[in-house]
Amino acid sequence: MTTEQLPDEYWNEFYSEHEQIWSGKPNAAFADEVAGLAPGRALDLGCGEGADAIWLAERGWTVTAVDISTVAIGRAAGHAKAAGVADRIDWQQHELGRSFPDGEFDLVSAQFLHSRTELPRDGILRRAAAAVAPGGVLLIEGHLGFPPGEHSPHPDIHFPEPDEVIESLALPEGEWETLVSRAHDRAQVMRDGVPINRRDCTVKLRRL
């Protein structure tokens, strides 16, 4: 563990530091990859302040949105109400290494599932794959490093390449199709307004 705080304490403190942490817009790579999918049931793991879940709900998806932080979930629920889609989103609090939402989903999304606290990421992503319904899609977006110039980076946090992500899922042979496996650059504006370039990776798999 890279911090002595419990994971829920860490993330509640993180979200309590500012009235809004993220931009309120869905991740561009996420939106691009989901735009062509037919709406169905979606699971958003690590939903934060709810931008992706709300974007999905606005496009006809029924969403189960999960985060460890009750502060983030409360904020996200308020945003969903303001957007008029509160009835399409089920907000759930889970520490994903300990509990996981029930059901099968046409889309399971794990966007930037990284943490400075203890996080059994590989195990969580395997459970995410198991929650994908036949014909459904698993979409994983991750960073490939810390932001340029970030102070006190944690060397024990590993950022896997796309091939590593797929290998770590240990998927049964012949039951999945790889749709996207790529590294890519992404422009990002930090909370202090400074623009940076990030290196991210996208993995998109379909269950046959």
Number of strands: 7
Mean pLDDT comes to 90
Helix content class? 25-40%
* Alpha-beta classification: alpha/beta
Distance between the termini: 36 Å
Quaternary state of the chains:
single chain
Give the CA-based shape.
globular
Q: How much strand content do the residues show?
A: 25-35%
Spatial extent as radius of gyration: 16 Å
Strand order of the largest sheet: 3-2-1-4-5-7-6
Q: Count of helical segments?
A: 6
The biggest sheet amounts to: 7 strands, mixed
The helix-strand sequence is HHEHEHEEHEHEE
Low-confidence stretches: none
Organism: Kribbella karoonensis
Keywords: Methyltransferase, S-adenosyl-L-methionine, Transferase
Protein name: Class I SAM-dependent methyltransferase
GO molecular function: methyltransferase activity
Main features:
S-adenosyl-L-methionine, Class I SAM-dependent methyltransferase, transferase, seven-stranded mixed β-sheet, methyltransferase, 208 residues
Give structural notes.
It is a single chain. The chain has 208 residues and is of the alpha/beta class. Helices cover 27% and strands 30% of the residues. It is built from six helices and seven strands. A seven-stranded mixed β-sheet has the order 3-2-1-4-5-7-6, sandwiched between helices. It is globular. The mean pLDDT is 90. One of its GO terms (biological process) is methylation. One of its GO terms (molecular function) is methyltransferase activity. Residues 43-136 form the Methyltransferase domain.
